[in-house]
Amino acid sequence: MIKDETSPDTGTAVRLAALNNALWCDAVCAAHGLAPRFDDADDASVWLSASRTPPLYPDAVTLRPEASAPSVLRWIDTDSPGCSVKDSFARLDLAADGFEVLFEAQWIHRPAGAPLPEAAPSGLEWSEVTGAEELAAWEAAWAGEEGTGLFRPSLLREDVVFLAGRAAADAGGRIVAGAVVSTGGGVVGVSNLFAGDGASADAAWAGALTGAAARWPDLDVVGYEGGADLDTAVRNGFTAVGRLRVWLRTSEGTRHLRRGTE
To answer: Do residue 101 and residue 137 come from a single domain?
Structure first.
């Protein structure tokens, strides 16, 4: 079900989910040699990278609903193509700064200890990715093509786990489903969940949640989804707790802010 956004615990759940997501973005960017940071000055409370982030990852993530457009845009690279902002509370209006809404979604939350999904037999065998070669195979399965090196081996660490679901009937142990589970902010985040080659999204969620519970049984699980993927997450025990919006810069805009001028 969609939870009432005025519920007393909704704000906390969204803030924890946003922080967890920012920490995952931070890990990916650091693995690429970038130096992102958390800025809590004034009303900012934002994670940001002054250098362009890897594909599919934002340049900034707001961590508090009070964050303003100037505080978010001040230190990120709005000049080169591809600048994006994850507006975790769907509060910002960046249209005048040359941004367009790329997509909207809902943060999702699942309490610790909730019963694991009773998925139908899937024929999948799940394990944790343990090395660079296996990580490359995981990325290729996730992307549906040859991997591009988005996920670096340095991401294989204690607080980040890549889960691989393999077709049991496939002698080669081919990866057909997977997810990333990561701790941070006092919760477990699920991201990059996928299912292909006959595997179902429900089977992928079952594998991800079982893997998360095996590692961190006492932590709530969070993430974000939209559309049919949100329906699947709700079917697997999540509650939608608040909207987020991702903005992509596509033009010069009328209130363009250069870094350090505001």
So the answer is: no
In angstroms, rounded to a whole number, what is the distance separating the alpha carbons of residues 57 and 53? 6
Number of domains in the chain: 2
Asked if the structure places residue 234 within a domain, the reply is no
Residues 234 and 90: beta-carbon distance below 8 Å: no
Q: Which residues contact 211 (CB under 8 A, 6 or more apart)?
A: 126, 128, 161, 163, 179, 181
Structure tokens at 248: 């992509």
**Domain-embedded: residue 73:** yes
CA 105 from centroid of its chain's CA atoms: 11
> Which tens digits make up the pLDDT trace of 107-159?
999 999 999 987 656 688 999 999 999 999 999 999 987 778 999 999 999 99
Beta strand spans in the chain (E): 37-39, 46-48, 60-62, 84-87, 99-110, 124-128, 160-167, 175-184, 187-195, 221-225, 239-249
0.85 surpassed by pTM: yes
Q: What is the pLDDT of residues 234-262, one digit of tens each?
A: 999 999 999 999 999 998 664 433 333 23
Domain with 201 in it: 124-219
Beta-strand relationship, 239-249 and 84-87: antiparallel
Which stretch of DSSP H or E encloses residue 209?
helix 201-215
What's the order of all strands across the beta sheet hosting 221-225? 37-39, 46-48, 60-62, 84-87, 239-249, 99-110, 221-225, 187-195, 175-184, 160-167, 124-128
Q: Are residues 157 and 102 in the same domain?
A: no
Tell me, yes or no, whether 137 and 88 share the same domain.
no
